[in-house]
Each structure stands twice: as C-alpha cells, then as structure tokens.
Amino acid sequence: MSKSKNYIFNDQTLMYEIRKRSKLSRIIKSATVFAASLGMAVLYFWLYTSVFGLELPKTALLKKQNAEWCSKMEVMNRQLDGYEDVLASLQMRDDDIYRSIFGMHEIPAEVRNAGFGGVNRYAHLEGVDQGGLLKSTTLRMDILTKKSYVQSKSFDEVAQLSRRAGDMASCIPAIPPINPDPTKYRLSSSFGYRTDPVYGRSARHTGVDFAMKPGNPIYSTGDGVVESVKFEFFGYGNQVVIDHGFGYKTRYAHLRNIGVVEGMKVKRGECIGESGNSGKSTGPHLHYEVIYKGSPVNPSNYYDLTITTEEYATMVQNTADMSEKLTLHPSHRPKSQTRS
After folding, report:
1. Alpha carbon of 109 to those of 55, 144, 326: distances in Å?
2. I need a surface site. Which of 43, 168, 185, 217 has the fewest CB within 10 A?
3. How many CB atoms are located within 10 Å of the residue 113 CB?
4. Is residue 157 a contact partner of residue 104, using CB atoms and an 8 Å limit?
C-alpha cells in the first residue's frame, strides 16, 4: 500500500518528525469532513425553514416579485372593469340608437363576443399560472381588444351611412301609395288580426287594403330599388317589392299591370303599376305593406291620407318631370309587365 509523508512537531525533541499516513486514511478523513459538512447544511436548512419558519433568500425574492406582479394585474383588472363598462355602454347606444336610426340590424351577440369560447387558447399558461390570474387577465384583454375592433367597424358603418342622412328622408316610405282622393278608394282592411275573407279564420293582416276600381295608378312611396317583381296565383298575385334602404321595404300586391323591372331605381311618387284583382283576392284592391328590418309594421304610421289630391298630383308631376330629364331615350324605360 502506498504511503505519504506527514511532518509533525515533537515538543519533546523540538524537531519535526516524519509520520507516515496511508492514502485510505486520508480518503476516510475527507469523506468524514464532507459528510459532517453536508449534515450541518441539512440541519441548518431544516432549522431555518421548519423550526424558525423562515424562507430562503431566493424564495423570498421570487415571492416578492410575484406579489408585485399580482398587484399590477389586479390594478389592470380594475381598469379593464372600467373599460368594459364604457364599451358595453357604447354597444347599447350603437344597437338601440345609432344603428336603429339608420335602419341597420343589430350586431349579433356571437359577433360582438368576438368568437371566444369552446377553445382553450391559453393552455400554455396553465403550468406557470397556479392562481389563474395571468390567464384570466390575458383572456379579458384579448376579448376587450376584439370587441373594441368590432365596435370600431360598426361605428365606421354608421359614419358611412350618416353621410347619406340626407338621402334617408326621401327613402322612407312616407306618402300613400295612391292619390288619396276619397271618391276613388276606401280602406277595406287595416293592419292587424282579422277574419280572412277567403278561408274564414283569424289571421294577421300584414298591410292595409285600399279598395278601388282596377286601373288606378300605384306610386312608389319612397326612393329605392325594385327588389322583386313576381306573380303568385294563390297569394299576392302581381306584386312589386321595393327596397328603400335603411331597413325599409314596401310591397304592392294584387296589381293588374306592373311598370317596373327588378333592379330598377325608382323615385318617390313614380308610378310602378296599376291596381287590380290578381291572386288571392275577393275584389279589386291594392294590398300595401311597409316592412322594417324584416318585419311588417303598420303602414298608417308612415303616410298621411289628409294630403290634398292637388298636392299629391303636383308631387307626382314633379317626379315625372325629373325622371323625364334623366331619361336619355324613351327606349330606356322598361315595358310594363301584365299577368292574368
């Protein structure tokens, strides 16, 4: 076994003497010192954390930093509460006031909620966010950002329509569809529930009926575009539907002749056909409807039958004169459509 020299001082001879020590004894001594040091470290850690309830410096630093970030996120969440209240107010005013004024449909809830839900987009935060605060704050910020974008686009649409506000007055169906000469018509049926004149059961009447002789001119009640021209044997017979924009449409049914075609632009007071008795009808009359945002509304809330026949005739003549000026050639006018 190999040996190493170790010099020690002999206090009796006052000389250094060589003491030989084996390598094994040196290893054992080193191992003993290391084990003792490790034991002391473990004992210190146990006493520091378990007995005295203290934290390691690094743990304390990390907890302090975590508390600071949690405080910042709580402040951010309070600010988000305020932003969400403001955005909710804007959304309500947008749907109930701005979009309603211009006849625009409300934005569906699933669109306003920006399509969130059903997909876990924040799974990567679950392992590092034990309390869920980081995940919930991130989710709220993303939702608020997308909702704000949707609202911004809505305001852009409203602003675009507001620039055409002057056109709205001429597009709303605000006059009677006939010249209100009391000697030539009578209101035979009003808006609402009534007994069906053909089937005899109670049914909702979605317009008003003007009983009159066939051949009376029928006029568009507002500027718009002819959406459809068709015939229904067991329904409205010859009918015209005009889209006025801003959420408004009008229907003119049971006509004898139709003087417009689909896609044609018409002005308020422009003749679109003649009254008749086509389709499911018990007598010659005009069935007139006002449709707002897809639902029939009472037409009598929009027109004034007390207007004089002279005033109405003057308006019709002014419209005809304007149309004549805009028409380059008579051949550009569509031929009337007649169905029996």
Report:
1. 50, 14, 44
2. 43
3. 13
4. yes
Return d(Cα 50, Cα 279) in angstroms, integer: 94
Question: For residues 253 and 274, what is the distance between their CA atoms, to the nearest angstrom?
Answer: 10
The H or E element spanning position 228 is strand 224-232
Contact 150, 107 (CB under 8 A): yes
Bridge partners, 210 (sequence order): 187, 286
pLDDT tens sequence across 150-159: 999 999 988 8
- What residues make up the domain containing 209? 170-338
Quote the tokens at residue 231.
């015939």
User: Is the same domain home to 27 and 127?
Assistant: no
Q: Give the Å distances, CA to CA, from 195 to 188, 192, 251, 278, 281.
A: 13, 10, 21, 20, 14
- SS3 category, 227: strand
Q: What is the pLDDT of residues 252-262, one digit of tens each?
A: 999 999 999 99
**Vertex 141: Cα angle to 136 and 147 (nearest 5):** 125
User: What number is the average pLDDT over the span 132-140?
Assistant: 81
pTM to 2 decimal places: 0.60
pLDDT by residue (tens digit) across 2-46? 455 667 777 777 777 776 667 777 788 788 888 888 888 877 777
Domain identity same for 11 and 157: no
The rounded distance, in Å, linking the Cα atoms of 104 and 246 is 6
